[in-house]
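Hi all, posting the design record for the shared folder.

TITLE: backbone redesign
STEP: 1 of 1
STRUCTURE INPUT:
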């Protein structure tokens, strides 16, 4: 269902950047599960370039049961841009959840005015994809903007309006990156290093997809996937801790 999205993302990336493959830990790039009603295949890609230190995207294909696309783009530590986060989940033909956002590293007014407020025009362009749904696993005021697209929708809307919004969000992100000035002060750069690590830690501890991964591919593999690939700068929770 999301093949067209992946193809557009790859065309956009390879046309704009001098990409190099970024290694994925052994055994995590591809896996097939025979659990559940339909076999599930998970496949991941990861790249890097001078401007973007980590570009990761993952597809899960479980036939009619589930189609999932997840991606996060991390800018180089020399840029203070938000992360670009994408989560598209389709279960059957009736349950489709889409999340797309510029995920802010900071919440001060100057930062939001520079990187988040420009999203308002795009959110206004796709009002049916901004449904103000409740976040069950995350604090909406941390690492999310108030102009995110977050909606439950139908399969036809995914193929049309969601695809159009996806292209628009990517284009705006590239424009911001083009106009961004690299940081040079070591303290500023270290501030970004810490902020991105904090994002990984926060996300790894709360990501509800870990349960989905476990159901298809087992707990041990899913924990490796979560901490060694998706959020590699996170430190696993201590034994006995409970995922919030």
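Okay, here is what came back for every position:
SEQUENCE:
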């Amino acid at each position: 269902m999301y093949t067209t999205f992946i193809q557009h993302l790859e065309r956009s990336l390879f046309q704009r950047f001098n990409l190099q493959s970024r290694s994925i830990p052994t055994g995590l790039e591809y896996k097939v599960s025979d659990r559940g009603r339909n076999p599930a295949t998970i496949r991941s890609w990861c790249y890097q370039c001078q401007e973007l230190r980590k570009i990761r995207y993952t597809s899960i294909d479980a036939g009619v049961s589930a189609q999932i696309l997840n991606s996060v783009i991390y800018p180089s530590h020399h840029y203070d841009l938000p992360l670009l986060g994408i989560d598209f989940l389709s279960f059957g033909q009736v349950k489709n959840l889409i999340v797309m956002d510029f995920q802010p590293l900071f919440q001060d007014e100057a930062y939001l005015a520079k990187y988040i407020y420009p999203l308002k025009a795009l959110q206004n362009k796709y009002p049916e994809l901004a449904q103000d749904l409740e976040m069950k696993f995350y604090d909406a005021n941390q690492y999310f903007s108030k102009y995110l697209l977050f909606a439950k929708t139908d399969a036809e809307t995914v193929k049309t309006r969601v695809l159009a919004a996806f292209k628009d969000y990517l284009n705006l992100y590239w424009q911001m990156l083009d106009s961004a000035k690299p940081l040079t002060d070591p303290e500023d750069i270290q501030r970004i290093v810490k902020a991105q690590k904090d994002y990984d830690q926060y996300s790894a501890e709360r990501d509800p997809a870990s349960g989905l991964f476990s159901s298809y591919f087992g707990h041990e593999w899913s924990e490796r996937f979560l901490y060694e690939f998706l959020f590699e700068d996170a430190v696993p929770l201590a034994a006995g801790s409970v995922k919030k």
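COMMENT: The chain has seven helices and eight strands.
Let me know if anyone wants the other runs.
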